[in-house]
Amino acid sequence: MPMMKRDKNLSLILLLCIILFAGFGAEALSYDHTVSIECLTHPHKPQYNGGIIQNPELNNGSQGWIQFGESAIQHRESLGNKYIVALERKQTYDSVSQKVFLQKNKHYALSAWIQVNEGNNVEVTAMVKTRKGIKFAGATIAKSNCWSMIKGGLTTDTSGIAKLYFESKNTDVEIWVDSVSLQPFTEEEWKSHQDYNIEKARKRKVSIQILDKEGKPLRNASVSLQQTRARFPFGSAIDKSILNNPAYQKWFLQRFTVTTFTNEMKWYSTESVRGREDYSAADAMLGFARRNRIAVRGHNIFWDDPKFQPGWVPSLSPQELNIAVQKRLQSVVSRYRGQVIHWDVVNENMHFSFFESKLGQDFSAKVFSVAHGIDPRATLFLNEFNTIEDNRDNAANPARYIQKLRQIQNYPTFKSRGGVVGIGLEAHFPNFPPNLPYMRASIDQLVATRSPVWITEIDVAPQNSQVQSFEQVLREAHSHPGVQGIIMWTARSPQGCYRICLTDNNFNNLPGGVVVDKLLHEWGLRPFSANTDHNGFIHVSLFHGDYKLEINHPLINNNNYSFTHHLQVNPIHHHHHNNGSHLTTQIVKLSV
């Protein structure tokens, strides 16, 4: 705080009352984030009372429901619960369906409860057939003797009659369906959900009152606020070329608080020749990050894709590979212990299985256990693609991801050490417009595990509306209350960028960078100024973070008639809430 001249006759007291009103006004049609990731004896009631689905709980026989393909359908009841069954299925798509009228450019939230008559690992997907083709809308892993929830959705590109149906590649099973919901939202409603969540999860209401030494309100004082550091971790990957490029450094440091190194920590970079380790690039990049208060995700210890191993690794015998793996694990995690916030432990181990195929199916769980023992303060992450983007390959959809998460969480040596498994979502979106309802519903499911969820490598493939799609997925990710941080896969190297560049080679913004700057401005960097009212107050909703606060008034007795203070706006801790309406107030008194 700057030194101030003291005036015997005047002392200003600044009261900072930071107040969260938990009862923020909900929209007329709010979004339902709830989801069940357990298999239950009875399905829940349909969300939104079924939305546009007719007879959603199957209480009126099979009214509204018809066969799809060549299956037979039956209405059944057990344990007091009524549902519909597709049986005698010959093709993947033989199923039960309902006709619905869809409107172009609306977002549809979908949910349904599914059971099969045999098995405990049967993938069932919800599909929508429109005039333009078939759209994927969600998936679950169904079991016999209990109900599993599908939660997903779709955005429509055409208006007209469509058919919602459920399919499974396993044609030996009956598909049982209950509590179905399909709820439309307009673009404006969808954005209102984002705005509501941002107010609730990312911001806090702040009341600032300025009083003189007698405790009287000081009217018409000019108050300005400028965020100096955001609390929500938002960043971009970087390449080692940043080390010798002041323009790159300046551009990056003006914007971000967290990073991932694209290649420099990977095994093929640090030990390209067997037995000859070289950490010089990663060391230098970590030094740059530490000097500038940039948090670093450790990426990665191993990568399960056979194409991305050090050149000497694939030809090793299992015994030699095991020795090399133990050495690599000890080497990289010990070297950077306490210096990274996360480790991506066995990257993409739901799509690939290079190490499992040679060293056993519990390879990943063992590596998580050992890594946690070496670096217990870092959160250890799974890291996968096609989880929230779409369902092109089923390998890492939310249900499969949760299976893998539980497999590692329950591994005895990891469980006994109390390790936490983080959920890393690469979010490499494809070359068509994003399915925002599926993205939101998928994050809902992963957040329900109570594991930390980060968006780790977000970008969008080249397409006509690439920048618009990039903005849409960044907004969706940032506004989801369960997402704890976002890193964009937008590193600039001398060769260019992976899929979307934010700047040119001279670090002037390209359209992608313009979007990022616009969002940063919205998410806290926009300056705020106001004059105090007749009670000496200003009221403002601020993003969590650090702020520089400047007050100007003729009665402030220094040469500038101003006073500067540094303010921290922190999230409310949930245990302060009292039936959702408790007001939590933080008061700071400053005498000047």
Describe what is shown at a glance.
With 592 residues, this protein is α/β, with parallel strands linked by helices. Helix content is 22%, strand content 32%.
Total number of helical segments?
Answer: 12
Radius of gyration: 27 Å
As a percent range, the share of helical residues equals 10-25%
Task: Note the beta-strand portion.
Answer: 25-35%
Distance between the termini: 10 Å
Structural class: alpha/beta
Number of strands: 28
Mean pLDDT across every amino acid position: 92
Biggest sheet statistics? 9 strands, parallel
Query: In one word, what is the shape?
Result: globular
Low-confidence stretches: 1-27, 575-583
Task: Please explain how this structure is put together.
22% of the residues lie in helices and 32% in strands. It contains 12 helices and 28 strands. Strands 14, 15, 16, 17, 18, 19, 20, 21 and 22 form a 9-stranded parallel sheet that branches. Helix 1 packs across helix 11, helix 5 (318-335) runs parallel beside helix 7 (363-374) and helix 11 packs parallel to helix 12 (511-525). It is globular. The model is unreliable at 1-27 and 575-583 (pLDDT under 50).
Write the SSE topology.
Elements: E1 13-21, E2 66-68, E3 72-78, E4 81-87, E5 95-102, E6 107-116, E7 122-130, E8 133-142, E9 148-155, E10 160-167, E11 175-185, H1 187-201, E12 203-211, E13 222-230, E14 234-236, H2 246-253, E15 258-260, H3 267-270, H4 280-291, E16 295-303, H5 318-335, E17 342-347, H6 354-359, H7 363-374, E18 379-384, H8 398-409, H9 412-416, E19 421-425, E20 428-429, H10 436-447, E21 453-460, H11 466-479, E22 483-488, H12 511-525, E23 528-531, E24 537-543, E25 545-552, E26 562-569, E27 583-586, E28 589-591
Parallel strand pairs: 14-22, 15-16, 16-17, 17-18, 18-19, 19-21, 20-21, 21-22
Antiparallel strand pairs: 1-12, 1-27, 1-28, 2-5, 3-4, 4-11, 5-10, 6-9, 6-11, 7-8, 7-10, 12-24, 13-23, 13-25, 25-26
